[in-house]
Amino acid sequence: MNLQQTIEQLYTALSKNKFSKEELLETALDVINKKDSDINAFVEVYKDIETNSTKDTLLSGIPMGIKDNILYKGRGASAASKILENYTASYDSHVVSELKKHGATIVGRLNMDDSAMGTSTESSYYGPTKNPIDLTRVPGGSSGGPAAAVAAGMVNYSLGSDTGGSIRQPAAMCGVVGLKPSYGSVSRNGLIAMASSLDVIGPITNNVRDAEIVFNAINTYDPLDSTCIPEEKRAPFKVKNVNNKVIGVPRSFVNGEGVSDEVKANFQTSLDALRDAGYTMVDIELPHIQYALAVYYILQPAEASSNLARYDGVRFGLHKDGATLEEMYKNTKGEGFGKEVQRRIMLGTYVLSSGYHDEYYYKAQKLRKKITDEIKKAFEKVDIIATPTAPSLPFKFGEKKDPITLYLEDIFTVPYNLSGNPAISIPSGFNDNGLPFAMHFTAPMFCEEKLFEVGKDFERAIL
Ligand code: GLN
Question: Which candidate in 302, 400, 424, 451 could, as Cys together with 348 as Cys, close a disulfide (CB 3.0–4.6 Å)?
Fold first, then answer.
């Protein structure tokens, strides 16, 4: 038995009593014990793991982990930030309560960039997570822990969060599958908020079918998230199906500056494999998509600076004394937030400040609408949009120090957080040094089933 078998294989084996849920958990804990001192995927492995569900569902008894920004009642949740180091969740997030209903075995909480801002998991208060494929390289971020834990076989699947690429990019870098569901499908209730109009929770798994199973379990309506849309009201958002396996390729975007040659070559090989599997490719133009990253880096800091204002040293988390109120804030936030988080708070406060609001925030909102409309329009002619997931392969620790270079990692993932479309990252082979490539597919709003369909075809095609 191993944790990298498919969920259905594990389920069948459990049903036939080939092994018990307890034995499966023991295996997970053994792998964690052996590997995690090197990898550092876990912030915490729970001492008293709940395995009491007898319910017969596909996920029952399957060991999994949650990103450290997802609340699980009575357990720590810190978003890998010093400011929340001693915070304990007072309620279950919607996704955790759904997983509990399915009898999932939640093994622990997983490492991430401080407050979910980053692309390499180097900024975690608990130290970086290493990439299981090559320990000298980053696992991507911000869900580096969730991706590494699955890739190393420590858990079968995990939940991450994706605001600009944080599920898909680390999944790509660790050679596993990562799904960002449509904005408005999976409830954000109980996710430590980063940029609320962009944040989405989704699964990281070993294969596409497993992502589908986990997504189906957590994709339930929740009135406690006001942006969560009930299933019966989703139909009007869906663009009509083109229905004949047409893939749109934003060619000039993919061929843009900063995309590595081997990534471009692998992308073409992947498209060829899809063509052989019966798909048709057409080039599409998304004229404003090149501004997506710039738009994101105005809206994300604006929303994050507003959300993070709650960590004032009084109500939540770390408190540091000061002679005056201002000094108390300075001491608390200065010590509690990492450097990158401080940078975003300052950026966000600036773009929202009077006089600059119109020039930056309002302009960015207009462009967000334009980008969203262009993507929606593209889906009148194609079923799926394909790009690489990331412009480069997993890099070495410390190799990318300049924040802008790190921001560029999200060039292909960010557009669909702005537009809300569902998107999936799927492994597409390795380079000569054994580093993984990945393909990125996007579907119309609330059409995750299309991603699963093309994703499964792609997995077969690329074998
Ligand atoms: N890398 C992006 C950022 O740093 C996205 C992070 C995320 O999706 N949580 O903001």
Answer: 302
- Give 103's contacts (C-beta < 8 A, 6+ positions apart): 53, 54, 55, 57, 59, 60, 61
Give the pLDDT confidence score for residue 195 in this predicted structure: 98
CA distance 231 to 18: 37
Q: Is 113 within 8 Å of 167 (Cβ atoms)?
A: no
Range of the domain at 461: 1-463
417 Cα nearest atom in ligand 1: 8
Instruction: Give the residue whose CA is nearest to atom 10 of ligand 1.
Output: 117
Ligand 1: nearest atom to the Cα of 414: 5
Tokens of 352: 């929202």
Residue ranges in the chain modelled with pLDDT below 70: 53-54, 240-243
CA–CA distances in Å: residue 409 to residues 294, 364, 433? 13, 20, 20
**Residue in 214, 99, 259, 169 with CA at minimum distance from that of residue 440:** 169
Distance (Å, whole) CA 397 – CA 297: 23
Contact 455, 210 (CB under 8 A): no
Look up the pTM and report it: 0.97
Q: What CATH number has the domain bearing residue 84?
A: 3.90.1300.10
| Residue to substitute in 69, 119, 173 for testing ligand 1 pocket (most ligand atoms within 8 angstroms of CB) | 119
**So which residues are the catalytic ones?**
67, 142, 166
Quick: pLDDT tens for 332-373.
999 999 999 999 999 999 999 988 888 999 999 999 999 999
Question: Taking CB atoms and a 6 Å cutoff, what residues make up the pocket around ligand 1?
Answer: 116-119, 142, 161-166, 194, 300, 410
What does the DSSP 8-state code read for residue 257?
T
The preferred substitution site among 113, 122, 400 for testing ligand 1, maximizing ligand atoms within 8 Å of CB, is 113
* Cα(25)–Cα(21) distance, integer angstroms: 6
48 CA → ligand 1 middle, Å: 32
As a whole number of angstroms, the distance between CA 229 and CA 369 comes to 20
User: How many domains does the chain fold into?
Assistant: 1
